[in-house]
């Protein structure tokens, strides 16, 4: 038996059609399938532990859906397989995996030993990365936009954020090494290459490594930043070493002089001054 878990808000609300299409396809193969709206599950831990005898959990959604799920089932030994069917708007998690990117993708092994981030007396696992500063502000605008989530509107809100954001003073500690940054545009702590729906912010990062990649964008004149931003899709921004610094480490602490917006796998959190990420 399969249980399809879906987020009805993912993919701008178009997931219901995908759910019905996938269910019919699996039924034709003789499989028994149940569908569950994730938003209607009040206790995800209880739900998972009472469904340990099925064959597969199939998740239809994007990075945000998967992030909330892995944090909800943290610490549970799950016996069924866990498969993902791409249906988000960013899909950076699937994009970073080796092999095929279509159909049902077995992701269970990639959900083990995820890095964690601590902030404001909370602790969360993350799949792709954590970003503070301009990166967080862009996600905040996209998540609260009246427009649909797509690349065009991502750039629309990125331009708005460029105009509004004022670079901050920060300190970044990587395995004990302290880095003082006077004009910080953003700091991204990455477990894989991508953020923002395909932007290759950390080209050498891999979720298979035992370290995180830390990308610091600093001291960039605003007009130059506008030209750098599109190059991130190809990873070319790393050549501008005057403005872009990349480090590796197992434990990363980021401290800002005042609260900024942070994003974790595309979900935003406001007024964050300090985080610690560990892999």
UniProtKB/TrEMBL annotation:
Keywords: ATP-binding, Kinase, Lipid biosynthesis, Lipid metabolism, Nucleotide-binding, Phospholipid biosynthesis, Phospholipid metabolism, Transferase. The keyword Amino-acid biosynthesis does not apply. GO terms for molecular function: ATP binding; ATP-dependent diacylglycerol kinase activity. Its EC number is 2.7.1.107. Gene3D superfamilies: 2.60.200.40, Probable inorganic polyphosphate/atp-NAD kinase, domain 1. It comes from the Bacteria. It is an enzyme of class 2 (transferase). Its cofactor is Mg(2+). Pfam families: DAGK_cat, YegS_C. This is diacylglycerol kinase (ATP). It comes from Haploplasma axanthum (Acholeplasma axanthum).
């Amino acid at each position: 038996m399969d249980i399809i878990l879906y987020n009805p808000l993912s993919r701008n609300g178009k997931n219901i059609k995908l759910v019905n299409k996938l269910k019919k396809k699996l039924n034709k193969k003789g499989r028994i399938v149940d569908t569950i709206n994730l938003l209607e599950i009040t206790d995800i831990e209880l739900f998972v532990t009472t469904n340990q005898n099925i064959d597969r959990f199939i998740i239809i959604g994007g990075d945000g859906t998967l992030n909330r799920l892995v944090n909800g089932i943290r610490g549970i030994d799950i016996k069924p397989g866990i498969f993902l069917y791409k249906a988000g708007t960013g899909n950076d998690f699937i994009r970073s995996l080796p092999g095929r990117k279509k159909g049902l993708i077995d992701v269970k092994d990639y959900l083990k030993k995820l890095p964690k981030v601590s902030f404001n007396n909370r602790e969360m696992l993350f799949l792709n990365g954590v970003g503070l500063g301009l990166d967080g502000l862009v996600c905040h605008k996209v998540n609260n936009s009246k427009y649909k989530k797509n690349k065009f509107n991502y750039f629309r809100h990125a331009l708005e954020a460029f105009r509004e954001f004022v670079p901050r003073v920060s300190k970044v500690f990587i395995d004990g090494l302290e880095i003082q940054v006077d004009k910080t545009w953003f700091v991204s702590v990455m477990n894989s290459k991508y953020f923002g729906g395909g932007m290759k912010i950390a080209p050498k990062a891999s979720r298979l490594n035992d370290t995180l990649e830390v990308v610091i964008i600093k001291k960039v004149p605003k007009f130059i930043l506008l030209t750098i931003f599109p190059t991130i899709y190809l990873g070319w921004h790393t050549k501008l070493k005057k403005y872009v610094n990349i480090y590796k480490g197992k434990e990363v602490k980021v401290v800002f002089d005042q609260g900024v917006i942070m994003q974790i796998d595309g979900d935003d959190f406001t007024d964050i001054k300090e985080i610690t990420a560990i892999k």
